[in-house]
Design a protein that fits this description.
- The protein is of the alpha+beta class.
- The chain folds into 2 domains: 334 residues, no CATH class; 85 residues, no CATH class.
- It has 13 helices and 12 strands.
- It has a 4-stranded antiparallel beta sheet. A 4-stranded antiparallel beta sheet has the order 6-8-9-7. Strands 2-3 form a two-stranded antiparallel sheet.
- Helix 4 packs across helix 12, helix 6 packs across helix 13 and helix 7 packs antiparallel against helix 9.
- The chain is globular.
Length: 433
């Protein structure tokens, strides 16, 4: 298995070069919301281990909201974030990225404060790395190569079935499977189809994953006596804070909404970036950290592959805390429209949504952390739209394919390669095509 990794480069933008930066990022697109995968700066299509990537300017327009908590409005730098999700070793990817697109990266990052054109680019990106506190991968080990091979396989099988529909009508499922296996073997021999074997899982990844699997619960057990005392006090304090929380869920500015809409629905999948300021105090801080550590642990070890709770439309997602954990950003790559995406969270993971986002200033008022909140659908959607940021450049390695498509294609390949399916399983497999 080839595990996935991710990166995020975060750097303050030089105010005198913001206009140039926006022009450079715009030049990477062939239309708003649609990247040119072979653009001159960073030709994303060259990187066969890159699932998703984006450049986004973190320009939070809701900073004035902090006044309702009596907090002085702070001036934060305007940040440029460059992030991506990859297969395999991160260091190897960054080296390849710089080797093939170093000139373009330098042009972009030259618009950031303190960047020198002759700097060691890999070292600079690592130094400006912003790690996620929680991360979600739809299907760990499913590589870009495998996705593309399985998509080609599914397409070839569908075309074969269409062209041989008359001959295959009425024959048993096992015979259909046998015919398709012969067809695929012939296509592979002719070099028209490739189905690569899995790479061995790196030993280092197994060790790190096992340490995380054991270490987090062990730390919880070691601190349990202290938590038994502290958590009830925190919960009571949290409930008191919830009763006076300000709700800032005004209708979003139409110009902002239109700008977001112009970047959406260019494919079956969309990108999402939302940014907010954390409510003040250690209760909110440690509640948020505890929840996100739990989300990260569950996503890595507990949840079923292909599902975040009951949500099946998310490819990759991450939560990142910035500016001394005073602000946070949520990034995701998902299928469908933003409206269906928000409905999915409300209807299928509302309690988790409340637990994570109730620490954000202005979120609809919660009740004991997990109740109410997003149950007021309109308030939640207004809040989220206000905090959504436009993404300047967004890349997806397999346009036109949803997470459900990837799952279906995986099952098609596994069934084709299986030698022990029952009659019922074979019938169900044929129904996939």
């Amino acid at each position: 298995m080839t595990p996935q990794a991710n990166f995020m480069v975060l750097a303050a933008i030089d105010p005198t070069r913001e206009t140039k930066l926006r022009a450079l990022l715009a030049s990477m697109n062939e239309a708003p919301g649609r990247v040119n995968t072979t653009n001159a700066l960073i030709p994303f299509a060259q990187f066969d281990t890159l699932h998703f990537a984006r450049f986004v300017i973190l320009d939070d327009k809701t900073l004035e909201d902090v006044r309702v908590y009596g907090i002085p409005v702070r001036t934060y730098p305007l940040y440029l974030a460059f992030l991506g999700d990859i297969d395999g070793d991160l260091n190897a990817f960054l080296e390849k990225l710089v080797k093939s697109s170093g000139k373009g990266l330098r042009s972009v990052f030259s618009c950031c404060a303190g960047f020198r054109y002759d700097t060691d680019l890999v070292r600079w990106m690592k130094r400006h790395g912003a790690p996620a506190i929680a991360n979600y991968v739809n299907w760990r080990g499913r590589t870009v190569r495998r996705i593309r091979e399985e998509a080609a396989l599914a397409k070839a099988l569908e075309e074969y079935l269409q062209s041989h529909a008359t001959a295959l009508t009425g024959i048993p499922p096992r015979e259909i499977l046998s015919n398709l296996q012969q067809f695929v073997n012939a296509e592979k021999s002719a070099g028209r189809l490739t189905l690569s074997d899995e790479s061995p899982t790196p030993i280092g990844w197994w060790i790190k994953n096992a340490l995380h699997l054991i270490g987090v619960p062990l730390l919880f057990l070691l601190t349990l006596p202290l938590l038994i005392v502290i958590v009830p006090i925190l919960l009571i304090r949290l409930r008191r804070l919830e009763k006076t929380d300000a709700e800032l869920c005004w209708r979003v500015d139409q110009a902002h909404s239109d700008a977001l809409a112009s970047l959406e629905d260019r494919d079956v999948a969309n990108q999402f970036t939302a940014m907010a300021t954390r409510k003040p105090g250690f209760v909110r801080l440690w509640t948020l950290i505890g929840i996100l550590v739990g989300v990260d642990y569950a996503a890595r070890h507990l949840v079923r592959s292909g599902r975040l709770g009951r949500i099946r439309t998310i490819h990759f997602a991450r939560w990142v805390l910035l500016d001394g954990r005073k602000r946070g950003v949520f990034f995701s790559n998902y299928d469908g429209t933003v409206e269906s995406y928000m409905d999915d969270f409300i209807n299928k993971a509302g309690f988790g949504l409340n637990a994570v986002f109730s620490s954000a200033i202005g979120y609809p008022r919660t009740n004991w952390l997990v109740r109410d909140g997003c149950a007021d659908e309109q308030k939640y959607k207004d809040f989220l739209r206000r905090h959504t940021l436009p993404t300047q450049v967004w890349y997806k390695a397999y346009p036109g394919l949803t997470a459900i498509d990837l799952e279906r294609n995986r099952r098609i390949r596994e069934g084709l390669e299986s030698s022990s399916m029952s009659e019922q399983e074979t019938r169900e497999w044929v129904a996939l095509l």
